[in-house]
Design a protein that fits this description.
Layout: H1 3-29, H2 36-72, H3 85-107, H4 122-161
Amino acid sequence: MTALATWLRGAALAAGLTLTGVGLYGLLDDAYVTEPAGVLWWAVGALVLHDGLWLPLACLTGAAVAAALRAAGPALRAPGPVRGWVLRGWLVVAAALTAVGLPAVLRAGRDSGNPTVLPLPYLRNWLLLLAATALCAALIALARRRRRHRQFQRRHQHRSAG
């Protein structure tokens, strides 16, 4: 591991611990939180839901995508890093956006008697976010592919020149 990677991991750990401390302080110091134990139970429930449902579902989806790509044969396989960590990373981001945005998408259009509740076009916005993140993933994959192609060309030119 490079020194930069070690430093970045340490900085991310420090930032995460700092934010956790700020959150705990805010929870215990907030006058509106009259039952911190209720919040603790909610956090435990979220952890159980994450580790008991969300994580296995994400792992099974990743395994299913990988198996489908292997079974598809070379004609349907995506080249290079698209089928690797870039695709998996985008699927995780898309799943998180869906988990957060789906309740608003499904409730859109329902009349609650208050026009300020869910006033935005949530389906359109959710699809735009998915498209924007897919574009980012595609650009990352393209940049990695171009870099690898340039490295291959340099090595090939170096070998043929020597």
